[in-house]
Amino acid sequence: MSIQDTIREQVTAHPVVLYMKGSPQFPMCGFSANAAQILKACGVDKPFTVDVLQNPEIRQGIKEFANWPTIPQLYIKGEFVGGSDIMREMYESGELKQMLDTAKG
Amino acid sequence: MTPTADLIKRRLEALHPTALHLVDDSAAHAGHAGARESGGGHFHLTIVSDAFQGKTLVARHRMVYTALADLMQQKIHALQIEAMTPDQF
User: Fold this and answer.
1) Hey, is the C-beta of A71 within 8 angstroms of any chain B C-beta?
2) B32 part of contact set with chain A, CB < 8 Å
């Protein structure tokens, strides 16, 4: 299975997926930390997260997958939503919580 | 202005910004794990352009990343983006 297939499987198998550096408990980058905190603030306590620092192939592959050069990256129901700045703007407008509530069913 | 900041500003002229504000935060992040590894800078960009009219946030950020494509590989480690249209500014 190619790395792009692996990523596609991850983002479709879980309603909410965050690609980040480190883990929500031990984030290794401020932007990843913010992204995990925003999800928590939206009521997603245990998102499916992928630590790209543990997997160099995914770290590179995810940039190609979304045509997006930075990490973190949030996916909801298989769709790329954005990085940490977009997550923050959508959180502040209430749009993100709405999307997440719908995704969780 | 640092050479990288200057390069960023010049590349972004492609989007015909009506306002552009770039802060180099690199010093505040020097030494953390990611910064050590890549050596690139941290920047905070506010850019206002008519080109963002009718575009989603993802599309706006992609326009910025596209303009900076070669710099994103090495010279830029992190870039915070606020991309607005003139009426949002």
Assistant:
1) no
2) yes
pLDDT tens digits, residue range A65-82?
Answer: 999 999 999 999 999 999
Report all structural domains of chain A as residue ranges with CATH numbers, in order of start.
Answer: 3-99 (3.40.30.10)
Q: Is B34 on the interface with A (CB under 8 A)?
A: yes
CA A66/CA A91 separation, integer angstroms: 21
Question: How many domains is chain B built from?
Answer: 1
Are residues A82 and B79, on separate chains, in Cβ contact within 8 Å?
no
Task: For residue B38, give its domain range.
Answer: 3-88
What are B2-39's pLDDT values in tens digits?
788 999 999 999 999 999 999 998 877 666 655 445 56
CA B24 to CA B78: how far, in whole Å? 10
CATH number at residue B63: 3.30.300.90
pLDDT score, position B1? 67
pLDDT value, residue B31: 62
Q: What is the pLDDT of residue B39?
A: 61
Radius of gyration, alpha carbons of chain A: 13
- ipTM of the complex in this document: 0.86
The total of other beta-carbon atoms located within 10 Å of residue A87's CB is: 25
Nearest-by-Cβ selection for B58 from A21, A29, A86: A86
